[in-house]
């Protein structure tokens, strides 16, 4: 596959997608969003890949949707194209874990793409924000919903209504990111985290992701039942026997993803 606006690489069971419009701080134009979606689905279907990392440059993960591309669009146009529906649909379809490795600015749609990933690892220089309100609009790739679920109503309202940025330390305190790492090591560390997940049993990884996502979608009783049934179903895998026997025999498991 060849792309204009992203780079695609594979290392040790991990698919690495690098947003690559450096002159525009990786602003998300239609081409980039289309290519990001294609790359995510291709990696999800690739039997050699167990986890995916999405990253940008050291200065910017992505500075938002491309303001220059969308500034002259009318309501009728953006409604007709259902702008930004497709990339949300893609993230909903990807079964493998997707980690956002964020350095620099993750603003507007950039913050939203990071939040659409399963978790965010941030560099110390990362800055998150939903500044759309300053442009006369609001987030359109899920910011009002995902940020509120991640950091709670008060901080989400503060971010959405003022458009201010949050640094990495505040993002970690607020639960927006799972860890903060030195900027120069962040991507290598995120790749190691992804590689360690790719080494695990793929059925258990997929069900762990599904069960965790259920927590945001359903009642506690339904979520607990879903989790229990998923847990029970993993006893049908060879990997469950291998994982538990390896623990008892004090050795590393050799998972076969079945
Ligand atoms: N869209 C298009 N181009 C952008 C862009 C964006 N979101 N963000 C930055 N760029 C471009 C700039 O226009 C500039 O291009 P030129 O050199 O051709 O002028 C280049 O990237 C470098 O940007 P700056 O000169 O502004 O860099 P800086 O270091 O001075 O500032 C910044 C960095 C604070 C991130 C600033 O670029 C900025 O505020 N960007 C816009 C952030 C924003 O408002 N994002 C939300 C977009 S709307 C959205 O995302 C909707 C949604 O929910 C989906």
From TrEMBL:
- Quote the Pfam families the UniProt record gives: ECH_1
Q: Keyword annotations for this protein?
A: Lyase
Gene Ontology molecular function:
enoyl-CoA hydratase activity
The organism's place on the tree of life at top rank: Bacteria
Entry EC no(s) = 4.2.1.17
Q: Which InterPro entries has this protein been placed in? A: ClpP/crotonase-like_dom_sf, Enoyl-CoA_hyd/isom_CS, Enoyl-CoA_hydra/iso, Enoyl-CoA_hydra_C
Would I find Lyase among this entry's keywords?
yes
| Family label | Belongs to the enoyl-CoA hydratase/isomerase family.
Q: List, alphabetically, the NCBIfam families matched.
A: PRK05862.1
Know the name of this protein? Answer: Enoyl-CoA hydratase
Protein's organism? Kordiimonas lipolytica
